[in-house]
Write a structure and sequence with these properties.
273 residues; 45% strand; alpha+beta; outer membrane lipoprotein receptor (LolB), chain A; 6 helices; 14 strands
C-alpha cells in the first residue's frame, strides 16, 4: 500500500527551443504541420505552465497529509490517515496510521524498508516491493513532466483527443520505453491540466501460478493551487475499470525542510520514531 504522491507533484526544466521553432514557423507562414513528437512536447510544455511555471520548477520537497481509502468489489473501506514525505529525485517515506498503529514504507532509489507498528518489526523491502515503487515512479505524471523518461531512452508521441465528460476533451501523450512498456497521459484540452494516467502491466493471478494483463488508471481531480503550484487533491485508481483506491489530500506543503534521518533505516525497531 503506497501513496504515489509522485503522480501529481510536478517540476521540470524542459528546453524552450520547440516553442521558439513553432513560433518562427507560424511567423514564416509555414504549411508544414508539427510532427507527432513535436505536438507531444508542446502539450507537455503547456501542462508545465498550467501547474505553476516557475513556482513548481523550484519544488524540491513535498509533505502531504490526508486519507488513503482502499476499495473492494467497488465499495470503499475504512480510510487510513497518511503522512507522505518526498525529497527529489528519489526519496519517499509514507506513514499510515490506523487505530493508533503506524506502518511506514520508505524508499531511497533501489533500496527500501518497512516498519510494522503492530509487530514492532523492521524489515528490508522485498524485490517485488521495490519494483512496485519503481513502477510508480516510471508511470507517474511527474516522470513525464520532469523528463526522467529521457534517461531510459523513452519516446513520446501524440495519441490524439479523447472524450473526457460532457463537452470536455483531453489531449493524450503516449510514452513508450525500449522494452515496449507504455503509458498514456491525458491533459485537459482547455486548461492543459493533468487529468489521467493509463498503462497496462502483467501481474500474478490470485491463488494461481498464471499471470494476467491488467489496465490501470489514475484519475486526477480537484486541482488546488498552493504557493503557485497546482496539483489534484483527489486521485482515484482503477484496475480493469473498477476502482481500487482513493487518495484524498487535506494539505500539501512545498519546500519545507525534510530531515535525512527520516529515510535511514533504524538499527533497532524498539527505538523507532
Amino acid at each position: 500500500m503506497r501513496v504515489s504522491h509522485r503522480r501529481f507533484v510536478f517540476y521540470i526544466a524542459l528546453p524552450c527551443c520547440l516553442a521558439a521553432l513553432l513560433a518562427q514557423a507560424q511567423t514564416n507562414n509555414s504549411t508544414v504541420p508539427p510532427t507527432s513528437d513535436q505536438k507531444a512536447e508542446a502539450i507537455i510544455q503547456r501542462a508545465i505552465d498550467s501547474v505553476g511555471g516557475s513556482s513548481y520548477l523550484n519544488v524540491q520537497t513535498v509533505i502531504g497529509r490526508g486519507f488513503y481509502t482502499a476499495y473492494k468489489d467497488g465499495m470503499s473501506q475504512f480510510p487510513t490517515r497518511f503522512l507522505d514525505y518526498i525529497v527529489f529525485p528519489n526519496k519517499e517515506r509514507t506513514e499510515f496510521t490506523s487505530d493508533g498503529i503506524r506502518v511506514v514504507q520508505t524508499n531511497v532509489g533501489d533500496t527500501g524498508w518497512n516498519y510494522d507498528g503492530a509487530t514492532k518489526s523492521l524489515n528490508d523491502q522485498k524485490a517485488a516491493q521495490i519494483e512496485e515503487f519503481k513502477r510508480a515512479m516510471r508511470t507517474s505524471m511527474d516522470n513525464l513532466l520532469r523528463g526522467w523518461w529521457r534517461k531510459e531512452k523513452g519516446v513520446i508521441s501524440y495519441a490524439g483527443r479523447r472524450e473526457a465528460g460532457l463537452a470536455k476533451r483531453n489531449e493524450t501523450v503516449r510514452l513508450t520505453y525500449p522494452d515496449g512498456f507504455w503509458i498514456e497521459y491525458e491533459f485537459g484540452a482547455k486548461d492543459g491540466l493533468p487529468s489521467k494516467v493509463i498503462y497496462k502491466r502483467t501481474r500474478a493471478k490470485a491463488d494461481s501460478d498464471e499471470t494476467e494483463e491488467v489496465t490501470e488508471e489514475d484519475h486526477l481531480a480537484k486541482p488546488i493551487t498552493i504557493d503557485g503550484v497546482t496539483a489534484p487533491f483527489v486521485i482515484d485508481h482503477f484496475i480493469n475499470g473498477q476502482q481500487s483506491s482513493r487518495i484524498n489530500y487535506e494539505s500539501v506543503e512545498y519546500n519545507r525542510p525534510v530531515p535525512d534521518a527520516l529515510f535511514v533505516k533504524p538499527a533497532d525497531p524498539k527505538k523507532f520514531k
